[in-house]
From TrEMBL:
GO terms for molecular function: carbohydrate binding. InterPro entries: Lectin_gal-bd_dom, Lectin_gal-bd_sf. Keywords: Hemagglutinin, Lectin, Repeat. This is SUEL-type lectin domain-containing protein. It comes from Cyprinus carpio (Common carp). Transmembrane segments: none annotated. Pfam families: SUEL_Lectin. Residues 92-182, 191-282 form the SUEL-type lectin domain. CDD domains: Gal_Rha_Lectin_RBL_rpt2.
Amino acid sequence: MMFFFCSDTGVISVQSATCGRTSSQICSVGRPPSETSNTQCSIDVPAIFKRCNGLRECELNTQGLAPKDPCFGTYKYYTTNYICIPAETSVTCHGGYGYLKCENGRIQINTANYGRTDKTTCSEGRPSEQLQNTNCYSPNALAPVSKSCNGLESCEVFATHTVFTDPCFGTYKYLAISYFCLPSGVCSSIVCEHESTALNCDEGTVISIHSANYGRTDSTTCSTGRPASQLAKTDCYALNSQTVVTSGCEGKNNCSISASNSVFSDPCVGTFKYLYISYFCVLK
């Protein structure tokens, strides 16, 4: 089992997650050399991002978590790096209304899931069989929540399968949302795939990256002239988005970055993607 947690003021933001072996010493006790000698073995594990991002705590069974075995015969381990980012959270049981509010600033949705990821949330009075599936994720939760709430000081969201579809029939679900309250002065940039964007700050200030994603989280952005098949997947995230943008722009007065697979890799083949960045201009 793996367990991650953040304090009451933060939520999990996974920076990298791999399965394999890059050291002959880690998790080697009692193992023969033949199972620990291959240290060129590693594969990304997107499921950890999907299941943990936006939660205050996250417990995972590692059985079957990796998409495939990256090195048969080698004894492997999981390596996960995550940070805790300040964010607000909202949990609404099925059939209820979730109310999101920013006292200062405007809402920017970070994560959203209509489903179930643990056995205790929204469990009171529910039979055990409705709580067992903790791998329940709605594939389209982020888009409608973002559309309803982003840029507003407050919003209301209905937690029901008529809005989000039913990702796990027979399981009692809830809507879990994490969001930021963006203060005035935050800048944002959206650029479609195959194009470049420039971030600029006034003289005497430099860029501080707040968030970034190369992928697709709604079906309308950068959609002109594109077939529906290229817009349908709205849970598309390049795992290295924040790292790449921060590396290229953080602390600079201006920078340019391309929205392309060659820069970020391709997180969802066949989907037309875009790069979203939010950032501040801060004093040097």
